[in-house]
């Protein structure tokens, strides 16, 4: 499986210049306001660059001018997004995108997709565009050329050029499949609390809108994986027995929770916030259809500290099938993680975000006597307000 090797973000909110070497599991820790959620948003922008949704995604964030880093002497003049992808047996594929404001809109000032080659001084260029000058490598002409079709200058060349080679397509697929999950809504009328349509579903949905369909289908089609979910729920809730899916109308299913101490099962709207969120997170992390990159913001919300050990285990297990990026400020969750899974985010003297892998901080002496969360609370890792 191809994986993202490195990301670099520049000029985005507090992320004036942040580079992270990616790993299968990346847990971002730090105080409120240090840039954890901003990094997830920046990766979502990288995803939008691959799917042709850059304009809409930036608009939803308030526009380029609204997200550019505020400096002491002004504002950053460019938003920089970079990603590299591992390619087995070859040098990494390197993608770079520079966007600058233009009135109320923006221009793509530079965009490249390149790969260094052995025994060549110059990299191979798949895309080499700047402003209105769009150029990509044409296989038939065997050279960099300009498109002979109408090109939307508000969207990237990555999302518009023809399918050229397998490796660039793999990069486009990986970036395009990035999925970001926020804290699950458990309001009175939240989708996770309501009956749901019986339909094929490979994931529980960002709002839990497909949780019932997903679990029902998984029980019928992949019972071993479904049993893993039930076993995880039994580990988290000792009284839990099973989930059931009674029909409530034509083509509609509810989901019930059966405990051994209760005669009748409970429906989803009768469960606690923490129980609902743990069911959803477990279903998500156990899904066989996870996207190539899965981002989760604050998964610890409403969860009892004892559940966080199970959550950490599931994130680690899921990272064999997807690159998992998590943002948290929970020291209780950090207790169950390893330094090589944790990126400490802090702010420097100028107020800009820094990002440092915890295993690069020489914590061995401290970890002989303290757990990782205690080392963090003692201020030995940074990332504290």
Produce a short descriptive summary.
The chain is of the alpha+beta class.
How would you describe this structure to a colleague?
The protein has eleven helices and 22 strands. Strand 4 and strand 5 form a beta hairpin. The longest helix has 16 residues, at 36-51. It has a six-stranded antiparallel beta sheet with strand order 2-1-6-7-8-9. It has helices at 36-51, 54-60, 64-67, 166-176, 211-221, 223-236, 273-286, 307-318, 331-334, 364-367, 372-377; strands spanning 4-12, 15-21, 25-29, 70-71, 74-75, 79-85, 93-102, 105-115, 124-129, 136-138, 143-145, 179-181, 196-197, 240-244, 247-249, 252-253, 256-259, 266-267, 293-297, 323-328, 342-347, 353-357. It folds into two domains: 4-19 and 36-180, no CATH class; 182-290, no CATH class. With 385 residues, the protein is an alpha+beta fold. The relative contact order is 0.14.
Beta content: 25-35%
Which sequence of strands runs across the widest sheet? 2-1-6-7-8-9
Ends apart, CA distance between termini = 38 Å
Radius of gyration: 23 Å
Number of helices: 11
What's the story with the biggest beta sheet?
A: 6 strands, antiparallel
Shape: globular
Key terms:
385 residues, alpha+beta, 6-stranded antiparallel sheet, 6-stranded mixed sheet, globular
Topology readout:
Layout: E1 4-12, E2 15-21, E3 25-29, H1 36-51, H2 54-60, H3 64-67, E4 70-71, E5 74-75, E6 79-85, E7 93-102, E8 105-115, E9 124-129, E10 136-138, E11 143-145, H4 166-176, E12 179-181, E13 196-197, H5 211-221, H6 223-236, E14 240-244, E15 247-249, E16 252-253, E17 256-259, E18 266-267, H7 273-286, E19 293-297, H8 307-318, E20 323-328, H9 331-334, E21 342-347, E22 353-357, H10 364-367, H11 372-377
Parallel strand pairs: 3-20, 3-21, 12-19, 19-20
Antiparallel strand pairs: 1-2, 1-6, 4-5, 6-7, 7-8, 8-9, 10-11, 13-16, 14-17, 15-16, 17-18, 21-22
Helix pairs in contact: 1-2, 1-4, 5-6, 6-7, 7-8
């Amino acid at each position: 499986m191809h994986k993202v090797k490195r990301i670099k973000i520049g000029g985005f909110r507090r992320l004036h210049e942040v580079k992270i070497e990616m790993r299968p599991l990346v847990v971002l820790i730090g105080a409120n306001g240090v840039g954890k959620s901003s990094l997830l948003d920046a990766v979502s922008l990288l995803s939008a660059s691959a799917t042709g949704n850059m304009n809409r995604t930036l608009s939803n964030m308030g526009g380029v001018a609204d997200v550019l880093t505020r400096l002491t002497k002004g504002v950053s003049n460019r938003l920089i997004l970079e990603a590299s992808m591992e390619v087995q047996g070859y040098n990494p594929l390197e993608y770079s995108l520079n966007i600058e404001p233009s009135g109320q809109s923006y221009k793509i000032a530079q965009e490249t997709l390149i790969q260094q080659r052995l025994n060549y001084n110059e990299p191979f260029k798949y895309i080499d565009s700047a402003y209105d000058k769009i150029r990509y490598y044409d296989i038939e002409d065997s050279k960099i050329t300009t498109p002979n079709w109408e090109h939307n200058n508000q969207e990237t060349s990555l999302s518009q050029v023809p399918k050229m080679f397998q490796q660039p397509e793999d990069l486009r697929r990986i970036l395009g499949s990035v999925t970001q999950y926020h804290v699950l809504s458990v309001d009175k009328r939240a989708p996770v609390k309501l009956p749901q349509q019986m339909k094929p579903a490979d994931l529980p949905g960002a709002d839990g809108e497909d949780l019932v369909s997903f679990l029902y289908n998984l029980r019928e089609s992949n019972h071993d994986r479904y049993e893993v979910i039930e076993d995880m729920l039994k580990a988290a809730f000792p009284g839990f027995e099973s989930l059931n899916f009674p029909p409530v109308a034509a083509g509609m299913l509810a989901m019930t929770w059966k405990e051994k101490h209760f005669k009748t099962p409970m429906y989803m709207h009768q469960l606690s916030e923490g129980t609902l969120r743990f069911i959803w997170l477990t279903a998500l992390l156990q899904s066989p259809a996870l996207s190539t990159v899965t981002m989760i913001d604050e998964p610890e919300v409403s969860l009892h500290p004892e559940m966080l050990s199970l959550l950490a285990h599931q994130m680690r297990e899921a990272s064999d099938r997807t690159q998992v990026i998590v943002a948290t400020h929970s020291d209780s969750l950090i207790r169950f993680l390893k330094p090589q899974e944790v990126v400490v985010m802090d702010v420097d003297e100028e107020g800009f975000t820094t990002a440092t892998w915890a295993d690069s901080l020489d914590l061995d002496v401290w970890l002989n006597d303290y757990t990782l969360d205690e080392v963090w609370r003692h201020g030995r890792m940074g990332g504290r307000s």
